[in-house]
Amino acid sequence: MLSWFFFLLDGFMVALFLEHIRYEKRLSHHTLTAYRTDMDQFQAYLKSEYELEQPETASFHQIRSWIVSLVENGLDKTSVNRKIATLRSFYGFLLRRKAIAADPMLKVSALKTSKKIPVFVEEKPMETLLDDVDFPDDFKGLRDKLVLEFLYGTGIRLAELVGLKVADVNLYEKTITVLGKRNKHRIIPVPNPLFTLIQQYQQAKETEFGPKADPVYLILSDQGVKAYPVLIQRIVKRYLGLVTTLEKKSPHVLRHTYATHLLNRGADLNAIKDLLGHSSLAATQIYTHTTIDKLKKAYNQAHPKAG
């Protein structure tokens, strides 16, 4: 059969799988890069250890051997589990196309990991950052403050902020339309002060760059082109360093902060799930641990029977 002829071509099925997740699953560029890296590493291991050119012919024992080697080399469990998930998707893809007779991943289990409580900034430091810290009244200053206000005021991801377009901002409805994971769109309400800041930023952008500014994307670099992830990370790290001693200072910390503060103030968990763009409630429930800890602390401090 012709399909089995292609099956024997070195790397063909891996390339076909990557094309599948790119165009049919419509995963993000970041996720696609992670899948490709995982498959490249797996193929390199099979070739080095077993002289095996086609990963589609790998056995359960060979797959397990790779997983063991990852753990022994000190890779954290979360990263190992992501690679296991990649292989699970790959062999599931092959099975559905009848390129293999049996799934070698059936006996492979994910590693047990401890649940990490999200790192977040307390409300008071965030108030200090956004209300009391002086930002320069020029393009860069307004851009930097806009980045912080967006990440904390909407909870969007780094990639979502970088990809946000001018056309995604609805000034009339006071909402933004975000393109999230798996190319799913969601609409997020935006606080009034943020819209005022957007208008100030747009004016500063026009003054700074004129017609040379990128007309499509909202957040621009110092050169007037679409902002890049490292720029956003630098902005967040710099300004969070002014108000918190947290070791981790990243855009995702502000996403955690957004969700935690909403939950602490009584927001519905399902609503937070939709705002964050989570596919299931399980992903959002990590924030309840922080709220429960806060309730326990309040109880221990105030209740006469505590302790």
UniProtKB/TrEMBL annotation:
Active site, UniProt feature: R157, K181, H252, R255, H278, Y287 (o-(3'-phospho-dna)-tyrosine intermediate)
The Tyr recombinase domain, residue ranges: 116-300
Keywords: Cell cycle, Cell division, Chromosome partition, Cytoplasm, DNA integration, DNA recombination, DNA-binding
Domain Core-binding (CB): 8-95
Compartments (UniProt record): Cytoplasm
PROSITE patterns according to UniProt: CB (PS51900), TYR_RECOMBINASE (PS51898)
SUPFAM superfamilies assigned to the protein according to its UniProt record, in alphabetical order: DNA breaking-rejoining enzymes
Domain of life: Bacteria
Presence of keyword rRNA-binding: no
InterPro entries: CB, DNA_brk_join_enz, Integrase-like_cat_sf, Integrase_catalytic, Integrase_recombinase_N, Integrase_SAM-like_N, Tyrosine_recombinase_XerC/XerD, Tyrosine_recombinase_XerCD
Subunit structure: Forms a cyclic heterotetrameric complex composed of two molecules of XerC and two molecules of XerD.
Function comment: Site-specific tyrosine recombinase, which acts by catalyzing the cutting and rejoining of the recombining DNA molecules. The XerC-XerD complex is essential to convert dimers of the bacterial chromosome into monomers to permit their segregation at cell division. It also contributes to the segregational stability of plasmids.
Family, similarity comment: Belongs to the 'phage' integrase family. XerC subfamily.
UniProt-recorded name of the protein: Tyrosine recombinase XerC
Organism: Larkinella bovis
Gene name in the database record: xerC
